[in-house]
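Please check this.
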Amino acid sequence: MIRAHKFLLRPTKGQAVALTDMLRDHCSLYNGALQERRDAYRHASKTSIKYGQQSAQLKDIRAFDPERQGRWSFSSQQATLRRLDKAFQAFFKRVKAGRTPGYPRFRGVGHFDTVTFPKDGDGCRWDSTPHDRQTRVRLLGVGHVRVHQHRPVRGRVKTISVKREGSRWYVVLSCEKVPAEPLPSTGAIVGIDMGVAHFLTTSDGEHVTNPRFLRAMADELAEAQRHLATFPERTRQRTKRHRAAVRKVANLYGRIRRQRADFHHKTARTLITAHDVIAHERLNTAGMTKSPTPKADPEQPGSFLPNGTAAKAGLNRSILDAGWAQFLGILANKAESAGRLVVPADARNTSRTCPECGHVSAENRATQSKFECVRCGFAANADHVGATNVLNRAGLALCDVA
């Protein structure tokens, strides 16, 4: 298996400055390579420049600017150019598929937050011993940076990435050949229904409360954003007070993100520990949170008909705050490590189908929480019914595969 380990870095002030310089110079390399591709396509008869051509120029670039580009790892700069090449590959893939393409954009220094070292020992070195809490990672041009290693690293370290999140620095290790750690069998199976009123409901009738981290911190976040908006345009990024206001907003969003991830990990671990098979809905979160298409009013040119955008925006915010996609990804990874089975099932009409007689109707769901079949009269909690149907569909899918 391939797994990633993320640890907090504790750099000195000098090392933090060097890390910031490293991100800045890699960002400059990324933007320069993007500009070269744009110019070649626009002014040289639509010529396309590939990764190999730009990578071959790195030697000359490092020699021309030894203080900014020559001091960093050659392989990490190649990884930055590959990152741009992947962005262009994704762009052309969307064009060929007929979807709305997003042309690769220039990155601001504040939005370029990751540098990758493709191989341990090439420009970086992970120095770790078992049960050592004073682990350090050696980075070319930065030095030996102290790492808070809160858990052992399993497998072989393949790639190392340095990432900035707000005012914090992290090292992300991608490890291969990670051994599985199967848990003892329980013989239990469960279906889960994801929701907003409850984060999830199991087929056993248990509800997991939705913590709503974004809503809980909405007032504090709104106050910080209002304070940030008071700075005039001409003074932005120029004063110490403005930079402090930016950090305040970023730190609040970072706290929400960490709280949500911690909740997802703990909830997934509880499910994995207690069940051998877990069935869940196959959800398209991106499609579910898409804004309604505006419809022009034929009687009033320039106006649009009501389409429930405001109400849908509130629902979208709640879905994204719950973080279903992140949770299901964490659940799948933990299940693979523990030797458990996670089965996605069709999510259509799971809360409108009667588990007793199989009747499907929108009228079956009387309210958000109440289910009552109009044919046989079966009544239960709507989320519990949805989880039961998910479990039944997953069982049918496993029978078909067998």
In short: The chain has eleven helices and 14 strands. The mean pLDDT is 90. Residues 39 and 45 are 10 Å apart (CA to CA). Residues 3-176 form one domain.
